[in-house]
Amino acid sequence: MRKLMLPVLVALAAVSSPLEARAVKIVTPLPAEMMGAAQISKVDVTISESARKTFDALEEKAAHKKSAAKPAAGTPDEQRAESYSTMPFAEMFPNVVHDELVKRNLTSGRALKLSLQVDTLKTADAGMALLIGSVDELAGVVTLSDAASGAVLGEYYIDVFNSSGGPLGLMLRGSGVREKLAAEFAKHVAEVMGKKGKAPKA
Amino acid sequence: MKIRLARPLLLTASLCVLAARAEARTVVYPIPADAVSAGSEKLGLTPSPDPAKGSVDVALELSSSTDHEAVRGGLVCGAWSIQNPISTLLRAMVADHNPGGKLAPASAATPVLSIKRASTLGRCFMTGEMQGACTTRVTIDAGLRLVGSTEEIPIRAQVEREQKAVGMCDGLAVGTGLISREATIALLKDVDARLGGAVPPKP
What we know:
The complex is a heterodimer.
Chain A: H1 2-14, E1 24-28, E2 38-47, H2 49-67, H3 76-84, H4 89-103, E3 110-122, H5 126-131, E4 134-146, E5 152-164, H6 166-173, H7 177-192
Parallel strand pairs in A: 2-3
Antiparallel strand pairs in A: 1-5, 3-4, 4-5
Helix pairs in contact in A: 4-7
Chain B: H1 3-20, E1 25-26, H2 33-43, E2 59-62, E3 68-69, E4 71-73, E5 82-84, H3 86-97, E6 112-128, E7 131-145, E8 152-164, H4 172-195
Parallel strand pairs in B: 1-5, 2-6, 4-6
Antiparallel strand pairs in B: 3-5, 6-7, 7-8
Helix pairs in contact in B: 3-4
């Protein structure tokens, strides 16, 4: 088996380019008239069995952070970011999506329900990251439906990576892996909903 | 490195390398009955029986968004391109479903099933050491115009099934065909329900 390891590692390195593949794949695009003219009023998250193990481990970590949390400090943004790291994913993800939509002023128009079916959630393997690089990954099917009628209006496959190559990559990766992946994922959710321009300054 | 870790790595690498060399595949329709049972057994799918005959002949309208390329998510088999000419399947199954045994010409006296678009989303995962599984979701969006009405009743048939990853990524086209068949059966059941029911099969 050891003899096989070299070709395996070479093969893995050779296929590293697909990691840069498109993050969003369109299954059914939102109707053009809804681009930049819709908001998310409800978010549902389901976890497939394939992602369950990592998901549960990260949920446990968040619960542990919550129990060990100190009184909030820092700016309101920092406090909010800190609170996300202690929330269960199903509570944190809608908040992250909401923040991203507010940033892009996508807060009015047709009310949509976002259903996320997570089918891949993995964190970088430290050993592999040192050898040939490894990735944190969050991927799943996003369905946008009319919040009132339930009619499906758009469907996408979104896959985000956060790569960690070598010791430096691991150091730069830092903590809050789950929140970083969710934030990157939310950016793509906002992108598929179209542009409305920047939010007015408060 | 332990063999335990090496095994999934080996399979993942093989799947990725094969996927990188993957050629475009096209799902073959219609699917004969023996191919439905053989393919389903190989891929671990449970096929539905052929739908009962409908009570009235239905005309079929197809849009340019009916035939499509499957969207593939994820890294494993991610480069495997599959064309799904599902209009061929729809024509064959709607014709078989009609009491007259053929597609009805569109007229004011015939209900019309208008296919707006169809899509296929496939993903493959590692489920354990040397084990993989692929999930395929086929969606058909259609509208049904009843006799004497110009309004369309929206119908959506969506079927998602998990299949075994047999022969690396090789079973994906067959699986896509079988799951497209399931989605078409679901669509026809919905049509029957709105048209007053199917003819019960003869004992």
